[in-house]
Design goal:
467 residues; mainly alpha; Fumarase C, Chain B, domain 1; Ribonucleotide Reductase Protein R1, domain 1; 3 domains; two-stranded antiparallel sheet; 62% helix; elongated
């Protein structure tokens, strides 16, 4: 029996009936539906709608439905259920009889789906933040293991200055920690309970909304029944936050792809996450990285799809909202799969530290440190910049590096040059000169690693507290 069939004389067109069903994708909300329905049942008992025996019967029935679903995927094959709410009602009535119909007293599917989705997104956020903490932990571990290994940093894809390998890896950690914070912020806003909102105007039974919210771990009840049944801001905010995670993963993947090319040879692709060519025997292709980059596009597209679906909807609930679930589920699923793979890839990857170090010591990457040498000897910054620029030009004409220029020729450019200038051009000195918080000086990177470990520990504790 349909949950709404009493008003209608004519059956639905069979093609339309199949087309409009959402059970094929919203059945993943079954656990959330059972939790929310159990809270509603207890509130009905307090309101005098259910007897103690009826409440026990309903709660036991809901528990059996959950156990059957966990034990058999075939249990969820139902060609008649419109959605997860209809499925649960059908199964409950089959188990306990007409008492099962009482569960829907004073509520609407509009508030049910709004509640289920909040429970789902909240759980997804907790799991994704744990996955992000795992990825960050591996990145920090690799940064610490790299010790004082150096590599070139780039601006405009041109060699700029040498940095520690660990400093480069920590840059990705900063991105992913921001992502974890955004998800936590989203969690705070979504953690209110729509139960008791009815279809649009509020429940027709005096239900204890605070009790239902508290029993489901929400911070409180929603403030307006119209908004509560139609609000999908939390879904949009969630998918937007995921689009930034995907964007950062895509940037990470692109950089690793670039640095694994023969032209760079900084990164040695792990074979367990690469494939070969069907035509060229020598190839090792960065498939995991390319798929991260490619699948990220779909997540960004889902955020756009959600905004377009919501932008023109009048209050309150509209069937269009059913279609907002698929982009949400797809983005969540994609990242749930992607993050652990990225973590394992980072554990397995090898860095060609000799090649990185060699690249970090050529191409005038010590030029700013050279200009700083002059600044510290009283030469105005702009003039120091110009003198080193002229020195670089001389080197380019001769095919040499700054450290190869004779002191006499340097002093012809500026009398501030002295013998200790050559020491300031060495890699260790160039790295050490960036001795500021957030800089690449070895002592600062070690400090950053310690601080970042504390942040990751805090993130893990928060995720564990919500588990």
């Amino acid at each position: 029996m349909k949950m709404w069939s009493g008003r209608f004389r004519q059956a639905l067109d069979p093609e339309f009936e199949r087309w409009q069903r959402s059970f094929g994708f919203d059945r993943r909300l079954l656990k959330c539906e059972i939790l929310a329905s159990s809270a509603h049942a207890r509130a009905l008992k307090t309101a005098g709608i259910l007897s103690s025996d009826e409440l026990i019967s309903i709660l036991q029935g809901l528990k059996q439905i959950g156990e059957k679903a966990a034990g058999s995927a075939e249990f969820l094959d139902d060609d008649e259920a419109e959605d997860v709410h209809h499925f649960v009602e059908k199964q409950l009535v089959a188990l306990i009889g007409e008492t099962g119909y009482k569960l829907h007293s004073g509520r609407s599917r509009n508030e049910q789906i709004a509640t289920d989705l909040r429970l789902y997104v909240r759980a997804a956020i907790d799991q994704l933040r744990q996955e992000l903490s795992d990825l960050c932990s591996v990145l920090v571990d690799r940064a610490e293991r790299a010790a004082d290994a150096a590599m070139p940093a780039y601006t405009h894809l041109q060699r700029a200055e040498p940095v520690l390998l660990g400093h480069w890896l920590l840059a990705f950690v900063e991105m992913f920690l921001r992502d974890a914070d955004r998800l936590a912020d989203c969690r705070k806003r979504l953690n209110v309970c729509p139960l008791g909102s009815g279809a649009v105007a509020g429940a027709t039974i005096a239900l204890d909304r605070a009790f239902m919210a508290d029993s489901l771990g929400f911070d409180g009840a929603t403030g307006n029944s119209i908004d509560a049944t139609s609000d999908r801001d939390f879904a949009l905010e969630f998918v937007n936050a995921l689009s930034l995670v995907a964007l950062h993963l895509s940037r990470w993947a692109e950089e690793m792809i670039l640095f694994s090319s023969q032209e760079y040879s900084f990164v040695i692709l792990p074979e367990a996450y690469s494939t070969g060519s069907s035509a060229m025997p020598q190839k090792r292709n960065p498939d995991l990285l390319e798929l991260v980059r490619g699948k990220s596009a779909g997540i960004l597209g889902n955020a756009t799809a959600l905004m377009v679906a919501l932008k023109g909807l009048p209050l309150a609930y509209n069937k269009d909202l059913q279609e907002t679930q698929k982009p949400l589920f797809d983005s969540s699923d994609t990242l749930m799969q992607m993050l652990p793979l990225a973590t394992e890839w980072m554990k397995a990857v090898e860095f060609n530290e000799d090649r990185m170090s060699e690249a970090a010591q050529s191409g005038f990457m010590n030029a700013w440190a050279a200009a700083t040498y002059l600044v510290k000897r009283g030469v105005p910054s702009r003039l120091a910049h110009e003198r080193i620029g002229k020195a670089v030009q001389m080197c380019m004409e001769r095919g040499c590096e700054l450290q190869d220029l004779p002191l006499a020729e340097l002093q012809a450019l500026s009398p501030a040059f002295d013998e200790d200038f050559y020491e300031s051009l060495k890699l260790a000195s160039v790295l050490a000169v960036h001795d500021v918080a957030g800089g690449t000086a070895p002592s600062r990177v070690r400090q950053a690693i310690a601080i970042t470990k504390q942040k990751i520990d805090s993130l893990r504790e928060e995720a564990h507290a919500h588990a």
